[in-house]
Write a structure and sequence with these properties.
With 183 residues, the protein is α+β, with helices and mostly antiparallel strands. The chain is 21% helix and 31% strand. It has four helices and seven strands, in the order βαββαβαβαββ.
């Protein structure tokens, strides 16, 4: 059984191991802090006492702030966002490779959707890394009502073979959107 709970300081090392298992050599990602007063909620999934996944949600009042917070679509690549009263940016979503496809990502995403709706989010967005490996977030996000509104190729993002696609990289940065109320 998977238990979803807030990120604790003692979890950071296990979470970093999960995240870095997904990246090419030399790439990194900072784990956001669980700072609910500042609008960022980080949840971890635990199975049998082990951390097996992490995902975060940051709540913003305007599209410009969401764009500034995105990892794959920044000021140099502005993309249109839907009109919303409040945005929920879903990010830092990673599942341990040995637990991919077991419902961990869905449990985390469901929990963050509930938190976001409680905070008045009217549109969830994510700038996701789509690739050809089985753990690409494309299927998870589509299953939860997200629609792809913009993509751009990021093939060749690493020297040597892509850690997800192999020698023929097809990676894309994808902006996905889910209005509240869509399952």
């Amino acid at each position: 059984m998977v238990r979803v709970r807030p990120l604790e300081p003692a979890d950071r090392e296990a979470v970093m191991a999960i995240i870095t298992a997904h990246f090419a050599d030399g790439w990194s990602y900072e784990v956001p802090s669980n700072d609910e007063d500042a609008g960022t909620v980080v949840r971890v999934a635990e199975r049998d006492g082990d951390i097996v996944g992490v995902m975060a949600l940051s709540v913003y009042a305007d599209a410009a702030t969401v764009r500034d917070a995105m990892h794959l679509f920044g000021a140099d690549d502005p993309v249109p966002l839907p009109d919303a009263d409040r945005y929920g940016l879903v990010h830092a979503g990673y599942v341990a490779p040995s637990h991919t496809g077991t419902g961990v990502g869905s449990r985390l995403l469901d929990r963050l959707h509930a938190v976001g709706e409680d905070e008045g989010v009217t549109s969830f967005v994510a700038d996701a890394w789509f690739h050809s490996a089985p753990d690409s977030p494309a299927r998870l996000l589509a299953a939860h009502g997200y629609e792809v509104t913009h993509t751009r190729s990021i093939a060749g993002h690493t020297d040597g073979p892509c850690p997800k696609c192999g020698p023929e990289c097809v990676c894309e940065a994808a902006l996905v959107v889910r209005p509240v109320g869509r399952e």
